[in-house]
């Protein structure tokens, strides 16, 4: 395990962000189903290793697919493998075996797939997925919807994805529709959910992955609290839901502008906000840390699904904020933050990349030194995070525990 020690500093300057993990994940599967083409750039993160490894395992006829700790890889590839008639067993590491898969376990056997599972991993599938009407809840995880969208176009018949509850995190589904369209596959949104025509062919193409708005949130948080940062490589017309970070930081009071030189966020006096994070759950760690340095109360709602991520992120954020002296109350679907003097503390990283990155930002503005364990967890999505953090002026020392 690695620990990062953060000292009081500030982040300023210009940074080119790494490519979007979410877009790359989808493009890797589309490229696999197309049978060719490149996907670039891709950073060598654990999640990308999982996605590329799963595609190669299916290509090579392997019977075991290790999704490492990637929920995207697991939930995207289960229906894809089933659509191809592959008999495989999915395994994983970390908290992944505890993450729920109930929607697939209940749904896919109705469409020709036999599933053997105790409710989570390991999970074995056999048989071939059949087209038809797929009734599924939209308020559990958009990853299920994306997985079906990737798989259903290759089936021989037409299919419907019928949402039995309102869709949460819709921007992630919109991104899936956009990437599929880039590969020549059409998904039609309807009053009941989505219509997917069968017998579609994925086009072979070379795909350029846009910058990652999810990672932008941490640096924009740092700039809003006390700096000025210009971020390059971002598409302001992106389908990524987390581009909403621009609006969120403006709600706090930060100065956010976008032009041909990039997206710039600069510090202004910050005020607390009331925000529903239903469509932007991954931004909650950065929002919570920003709120800790704003004047007035912040209420974060609509984020109950964060309890089933790499950690229970609501619990993790609340616990770490309390250790830093911040007044915070945990709620079922979020938290209420009443800022006070923020002090350095020994924090837990919970083996969760977003918790570590968010509290690294908190640490540079806290009074005193902050340490965070499980610092190696940033390798899941952003291995060069601390290098970029330091380039912008952040004081971060990563070392081995013990």
Q: Describe it for me?
A:
By secondary structure, the protein is an alpha/beta fold. It is built from 12 helices and 22 strands. The chain has a 4-stranded mixed beta sheet with strand order 20-21-1-22, covered by helices on one side. The protein has a 4-stranded mixed beta sheet with strand order 2-13-15-14. A hairpin with a 5-residue loop joins β6 and β7 (123-126). α7 (213-226) packs parallel to α8 (245-252) and α7 (213-226) runs parallel beside α9 (284-291). The longest helix is centred in the N-terminal third of the chain and has 15 residues, at 46-60. It is globular and about 60 Å long. The N and C termini lie close together (9 Å). The model has no long low-confidence stretch (mean pLDDT 96).
